[in-house]
């Protein structure tokens, strides 16, 4: 079991079966953070949903299962799902990478209880004013 650090929130995502059996992608919003949760070849990943080149949503990106990477749908930049590192230009800045945990068939992600650094102006509309976590919102989308 993974234990949340003092500055992290443990956020319930849903049944893990939806990700492993139905190939679901979900975006979990916590404060100004958007966390993309998905499974590739039976492995669970949680990374930032917004491309660091421009704020495109990676949930609409194409996954490369053989290398555990995802392409941004706008300019085809690429990221490693395993590390969040940018692996193809024009992306250069890594994505946030989040820990995941499965307990009794339920999936959780661990999200820092702090705003993104530096703040992403494009995501400010999702924050609850102070930059503190504004609660959990899920936007489930089948792949
Ligand atoms: S917006 Fe993602 S690569 Fe340009």
From TrEMBL:
Signal peptide: none annotated. It comes from Microbacterium allomyrinae. It comes from the Bacteria. InterPro entries: Rieske_2Fe-2S, Rieske_2Fe-2S_sf. This is Rieske 2Fe-2S domain-containing protein. Its cofactor is [2Fe-2S] cluster. Belongs to the bacterial ring-hydroxylating dioxygenase ferredoxin component family. PANTHER family: FERREDOXIN-RELATED, RIESKE DOMAIN-CONTAINING PROTEIN.
């Amino acid at each position: 079991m993974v234990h949340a650090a003092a500055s992290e929130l443990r956020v319930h995502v849903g049944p893990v079966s939806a990700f492993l059996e139905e190939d679901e992608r979900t975006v979990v919003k916590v404060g100004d953070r958007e966390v993309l949760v998905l499974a590739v070849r039976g492995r669970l990943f949680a990374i930032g949903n917004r491309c660091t080149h421009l704020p495109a949503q990676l949930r609409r990106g194409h996954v490369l299962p053989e290398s555990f990477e995802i392409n941004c749908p706008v300019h085809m930049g690429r990221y490693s799902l395993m590390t969040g590192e940018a692996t193809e230009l024009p992306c250069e800045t890594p994505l946030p990478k989040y820990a995941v945990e499965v307990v009794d068939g339920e999936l959780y992600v661990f999200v820092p209880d702090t705003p993104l650094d530096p703040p992403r102006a494009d995501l400010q509309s999702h924050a609850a004013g102070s930059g503190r976590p504004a609660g959990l919102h899920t936007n489930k989308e089948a792949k």
